[in-house]
Amino acid sequence: MTGRPRAGQASAPPSRAPRTIRYTEGPHLLVRGDCIRALRRMAADSVDVVVTSPPYNIGLKYRTYRDRLDENGYLDWMVEVAREVRRVMRPDGSFFLNVAGSSAQPWIPFELMVRLRELFVLQNHISWVKSISVGAETHGHFKPVNSPRYVNRNHEHLFHLTLAGDVTLSRLDIGVPYMDKSNIARRGHRQDRRCRGDTWFIPYETVQGRAQKFHHPGTFPVMLPQMCIRLHGKRAPVVLDPFMGTGTTLVAAVREGGQGIGIDLDTIYVNVARQRVREAMRIEADGATGAGDQEI
C-alpha cells in the first residue's frame, strides 16, 4: 500500500478496494477484504458480541495498512465502522472496543468515545492492565517508552459499548475467589466468586520474536476476548471481530463455544487466522479443553 488512505477506506488503497474473499472453517467465517464493505453485506441484528482492536493511528507497521491518518480522518473512519457494527449487533449485544492511544496522542481514545455517544451507551470502561507494580514486585510485561517525558504505558482501554446500557452480564463467570472466605456465608453468596471489577490484569505472553507474534504489531492475549465473551454471558454466541488480524478473537470464540466472524484486509493475516482457528477447533474436538470450561 503506497498512498495515504482516505477516511472510510483506511483499510484499502485509495484507488481500488481489494476483492472480498470469504473462507469458512467449520461454523466460522473469515473474510479477506475491506471491513466496512464486508460489514455492509452482513445481516442486521445478527451478532451477539463484538470484540476488536482497531488500528490505533499511532504509526504501527501493518503489512497492508498505513496506520497514520490525520486525526479527524481517523475518527470519521472509526465512526463509520462503528455505525455498521451497531447495525449488525443484536439489541442485547455487547461491543468491546480495545483502544490504546499513545503518549504523544493521549486524547484519541476519549475523543473516539465522545464521537460514539451518538451510536452507543458506554456501559463499562475497563482497564486492561498488562504490567503492574505492587510494592517492590513487578508483574507482567510492557513496551518501554523511549522518552524521559513519559512513564511506561502499562494499560490499555477496553470500552464496553451497548445499544441502551441495559445488557445484563454474567459477572461471576469471570469472577475471582474471595480472599476472606468468611465473606461467602456472611454476605449470602452461594459460591466462592466475586465480581472481578473494571481492572483486568492480563499480561502478554512473553515472545522471543515477531514469528511468535504472528508478524502482527497489534495482537492481544486470547484471554482478553475470552473474558469479554464470557462476561456477555450468552451461550453459543455469534462473535465478530471486524479487525481480525491473526484471529485471536476467533480462537476465543472457538474456545467459548461460539461462532466466529472475522474480517481483515491482509491475505497473510487471514491465512494465519485460518490456521489458528483450525488448530483451536482440533483441540476442542480432541477434548483438551471443553468449550467454556477453561479457568479464567
TrEMBL record:
The keyword DNA-binding applies. Residues 47-274 form the DNA methylase N-4/N-6 domain. Its EC number is 2.1.1.-. It catalyses: a 2'-deoxyadenosine in DNA + S-adenosyl-L-methionine = an N(6)-methyl-2'-deoxyadenosine in DNA + S-adenosyl-L-homocysteine + H(+); a 2'-deoxycytidine in DNA + S-adenosyl-L-methionine = an N(4)-methyl-2'-deoxycytidine in DNA + S-adenosyl-L-homocysteine + H(+). PROSITE patterns: N4_MTASE. GO terms for biological process: DNA restriction-modification system; methylation. Keywords: DNA-binding, Methyltransferase, Restriction system, S-adenosyl-L-methionine, Transferase. It comes from the Bacteria. It is an enzyme of class 2 (transferase). GO terms for molecular function: DNA binding; N-methyltransferase activity; site-specific DNA-methyltransferase (adenine-specific) activity; site-specific DNA-methyltransferase (cytosine-N4-specific) activity. One of its GO terms (cellular component) is cytoplasm. InterPro entries: DNA_methylase_N4/N6, MeTrfase_CN4_CS, RM_Methyltransferase, SAM-dependent_MTases_sf. Belongs to the N(4)/N(6)-methyltransferase family. N(4) subfamily. This is Methyltransferase. It comes from Komagataeibacter melaceti.
